[in-house]
């Protein structure tokens, strides 16, 4: 289910707080519709310098995001919220990713293909942007959008897995 939760950054929130708050809001919205279901929800953002990047609004914003990531190290944060019965668990995972220098043609071609439009930071590491990455420090599955090792451990703690 895709809950109707606005993906907005709060004032003065650090990236881990943003994604945990949004993941929990999504989980609660789904749980309200399915009160007996175990619910897993997640939200991912990209943080670089003092900016928190969600999904680009349009192609121009996608180009600007990719330019800001070119040749730089950024962090990808995913918040996960689990609700099972009366139990609630919320956590976040951060991963450092470094992009090589990207040419304007590479950025334009990638954005023209449409893949960046529904991705935090305007890229998919599991897709066409895989070749942009020069190094990664942390969970690759986190950068994809769901930190599997940590999520499976949480599901086990809650008795869901």
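Sequence proposed for the structure above (161 residues):
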């Amino acid at each position: 289910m895709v809950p109707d939760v606005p993906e907005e950054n709060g004032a003065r929130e650090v990236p881990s707080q943003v994604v945990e708050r949004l993941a929990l809001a999504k989980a609660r919205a789904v749980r309200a519709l399915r009160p007996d279901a175990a619910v897993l929800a997640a939200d991912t953002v990209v943080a670089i310098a003092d900016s928190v990047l969600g999904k680009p609004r349009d192609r121009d914003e996608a180009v600007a995001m990719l330019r800001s990531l070119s040749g730089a190290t950024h962090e990808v944060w995913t918040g996960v919220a689990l609700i099972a019965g009366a139990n609630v668990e919320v956590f976040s995972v951060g991963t450092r990713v470094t992009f090589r220098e990207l040419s304007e043609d590479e950025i334009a071609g990638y954005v023209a293909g449409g893949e960046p439009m529904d991705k935090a930071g305007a890229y998919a590491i599991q897709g066409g942007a895989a070749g942009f990455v020069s190094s990664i420090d942390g969970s690759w599955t986190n950068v994809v959008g769901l930190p599997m090792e940590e999520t499976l451990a949480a599901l086990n703690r809650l008795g869901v897995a």
